[in-house]
């Protein structure tokens, strides 16, 4: 057996197999990041070589495109650990949903994470559009239209909602919509092969907080 084959086997063995294992690994990485004790795992030449012909990510992270929200950094991950999909305001479109379905159906990823953050520019633009009735130009309008239901729900529940409240509501709605819109994801969750969680990231201290969960995890 070659060194490359050994590496591939080790990559599989080290891969969290269940939603709960994936969740605990992810949160432990975030704890290290918050405490400035990141271990920067799986970032050496051996790891790179082990991934030449295969990949076994344990989390799909569907996050906002914001430059301050680099998933591999805030969860202290390495090569092959996360299958990352990002759009401004973690807005779902067909390509984003197809990418997430690919991770579930073909890579057997046990955890889907929707990752929002405070001071989100896309949510702020939507709040302003709702307040003024003035829509942004170009394709930014499409982003705002897709986020508007979350902002309106937040305002209905609390007319004094701030951006943080709206971000949390948008994370919850996005996570729920993944399951509602995708039979592939819904089936994986029902069979306890995959769980969907929603997290909000705090820019000031780097902590990711759980705000939504659908599936078998032990938080």
From TrEMBL:
Pfam families: Pro_CA. Transmembrane segments: none annotated. Keywords: Lyase, Zinc. It catalyses: hydrogencarbonate + H(+) = CO2 + H2O. InterPro entries: Carbonic_anhydrase, Carbonic_anhydrase_CS, Carbonic_anhydrase_sf. Its EC number is 4.2.1.1. PROSITE patterns: PROK_CO2_ANHYDRASE_1. Belongs to the beta-class carbonic anhydrase family. Catalyzes the reversible hydration of carbon dioxide to form bicarbonate. This is carbonic anhydrase. It comes from Arthrobacter cryoconiti.
